[in-house]
Every structure is written in structure tokens, then in C-alpha cells.
Amino acid sequence: MGSKIQVGDKAPDFALPATTGEMVRLSDFLGKTYVVVYFYPKDDTPGCTKEACAFRDSYEVFKQAGAEVIGISSDSVEEHQRFRERYKLPFLLLSDKGGEVRKRYNVPKTFGLIPGRVTYVIDKQGIIRHIFNSQFDAEMHREEALKTIKELSALP
């Protein structure tokens, strides 16, 4: 575990496989768009489904504000593909099989067992502007991210 990541820090870059078959890097978005990166425990579980559907239902609002949403868990690309199709998720889901990116972002485990649920809002320069950590209030992740994106983009 590295040092704790805080608001104002440069977000660690990553390259992870997406359901599209391509490698997605955080650096691909720099200078172009805000990025909401949300780490979640597992595809197709009640809390994670609620969270993913909340982001899905506000995806157009995020896009209009100049933001991209990316979900990351340790599930395989195939599991992500099924999850995306089942709930019609329009955003990227990335597979962090060994949990390396999760470690770089210092996402804590809940009860020392369950992969944590943490959302990072990253500006166009790659600086972390907001961190929201709540294992049990899955839908608040969308609310917190949207509020921050609206502040950053100065949308009404």
C-alpha cells in the first residue's frame, strides 16, 4: 500500500481491459474530460447493481457536464460484459483482476474482507477533486460525483 491518496493529488494512471476488448488508460481522458472512477466490490450483487444503475440513469447528465464514468472491480471482462448487457450500462467497466489499481488508489476493504466501494472524481488535468467512500450507501456515489462534476463544470 502506498501513501493515502487525497483530494488535490494526481490520480494514479492505469491501463485495464474493458468489455470493449481494448485497454483503457486514465491518461487517455486527460485534457479532454472529467472522469468519475468508481471502485465497487462485485458485479450482479444488490448494492453494486443499485450503484451501477444509478450511474446509468444519470449517464447523460454526466456526459453533458463533460464527464466520463468508469466502473472498476476485480470481476473478469466476461463477467463485466454480462453485467453491462443485463442492466444496459452505457459506461466502461474495467477488470482489475489482481486488484493492483485498487491498491494504487488505496481503496480499503470493508471488515477486512469485502473490496471497498470508493468513488474518485478526477479533473481534466488528472487531479483528484473529490473522494467518496461508503460501502453501504451505493446510490450516494452518483449523487456525490454529480454534485462535484456540476461544480467543476459550472453547469446549472
A few lines on this structure:
The protein has 156 residues and is α/β, with parallel strands linked by helices. 31% of the residues lie in helices and 24% in strands.
Features:
156 residues, alpha/beta, Glutaredoxin, five-stranded mixed β-sheet, two-stranded antiparallel ribbon, 5 helices, globular, EC 1.11.1.24
**What is the name of the CATH class?**
Alpha Beta
Listing every helix as H and every strand as E from the N terminus to the C terminus, the arrangement reads EEEHHEHEHEEEEH
Largest sheet: 5 strands, mixed
- What CATH calls the topology is Glutaredoxin
Pfam families: AhpC-TSA (PF00578)
Main location: other
Protein name: thioredoxin-dependent peroxiredoxin
Subcellular location: Thylakoid
Detailed description of the structure:
Monomer. It holds the Pfam family AhpC-TSA. It is an enzyme of class 1 (oxidoreductase). It catalyses: a hydroperoxide + [thioredoxin]-dithiol = an alcohol + [thioredoxin]-disulfide + H2O. InterPro entries: AhpC/TSA, Peroxiredoxin_AhpC-typ, Peroxiredoxin_BCP/PrxQ, Thioredoxin-like_sf, Thioredoxin_domain. This protein has 156 residues and is of the alpha/beta class. It has one domain: 3-Layer(aba) Sandwich (Glutaredoxin). Helix content is 31%, strand content 24%. It has helices at 46-57, 59-64, 77-87, 100-104, 140-153, and strands at residues 15-17, 23-25, 34-39, 67-73, 92-95, 109-110, 114-115, 118-122, 128-133. The chain has a five-stranded mixed β-sheet. A hairpin with a 5-residue loop joins strand 1 (15-17) and strand 2 (23-25). The chain is globular and about 35 Å long. The N and C termini lie far apart (39 Å).
